[in-house]
Write a structure and sequence with these properties.
Largest sheet: 6 strands, mixed
Strand order of the largest sheet: 1-2-3-4-5-6
CATH superfamily of the largest domain: Nitrogenase molybdenum iron protein domain
Helix content: 25-40%
CATH topology of the largest domain: Rossmann fold
Strand content: 15-25%
CATH class of the largest domain: Alpha Beta
Radius of gyration: 22 Å
Distance between the termini: 62 Å
Length: 372
Amino acid sequence: MKSERIIVLLLLCLLVACNGNRTNMGGDEGDTIPMKYARNLTMIAHKNYTEAFIRNPWDTTMVLHHYILSPLPSSPKDEGSTLVRVPLRRAGIFTAVHCGLVKELGCETAIRGICEIEYINIPSIRKAVREGRVSNFGSAMEPSIESIMDAEPDALLISPFENSGGYGRVERLGIPIIECADYMEFSPLARAEWMRFYGRLFGVGERADSLFCEVERRYLALRKQANKVTYRPTLVAEKPYSGVWYVAGGQSAMGILYHDAGADYLFADRKKNGSLSLSVETVFEVAQQADIWLIKYNQSTPLTLRQLMSDYPSFAHFRAVQTNHVYGCNQETSRFYEETPYHPDRLLADLVRIIHPNLGIKHEKQYFYPIE
């Protein structure tokens, strides 16, 4: 029966996503909420509740989770679904990126617990933790069960991982777990579109829809402007860690961003959605001729070229180093991970500023700065 149920849910998910058809559940005919980019999310609006289907990104023949979002104490709860009382009033949020989005949607007071405060660069949330208004659950991988129980959250927003084996003791608490699989989407706008789902969790669906429309408008306008150029400088990204150089695949969100910003990304031909683990020698062979080099890093002080050379003296021969086109983003001091997943327009503007300075792009955020 369980396998049959999963197949039915999958067919429903595919049907409404592809054809925009209506569904009937408990006699209440619902309307599909159109999604323009997201592939792993389908939502259906009913009279008194909303259904959300999350497709398993690691096995697209399966449904990862089926939610019923309802303001009522009970609803037409389908077998195998999770009932979530909305709007959420006391949410436990395990990731910095979702904290940032909830704050931007005007629902910061609903954040009652967080994980790994050391990665959250939002002053108001850090202050709330210090004052005891928001609980610190500790590590996202091994959160404090006692702290979660004390916070009494009405839902937990957690990023799922492939072959994780579930959520252990957290799962046994009986608190609805919202599986935030947005990071597995195939494009920057696809991930950003998930804000429409999170907006409905917190009762601000229209606000989230409006915000996404504005993000989309800005992104597409920037992409159109950047792709009018005839010259596309070559670009490489990141740096080695422990003898391995992780680079974005050509079909990943970052790979697409590099292309949309008007760059000739040197690993665009690696058709992968996600990162690639390559040997330092493999990347060196390609990267030394790159016009632009972008590096994300984490440390208390700005990265310098001297630090780069001390690890790998051969970096001195890189064209980008010789022409002063090396740019770094310090993720420890910036809000890169808290902002850019739902604001790819801001990151795209920053990349266009670097890749095509002659376009004169003006924007409010800068994440990458020249490495001295």
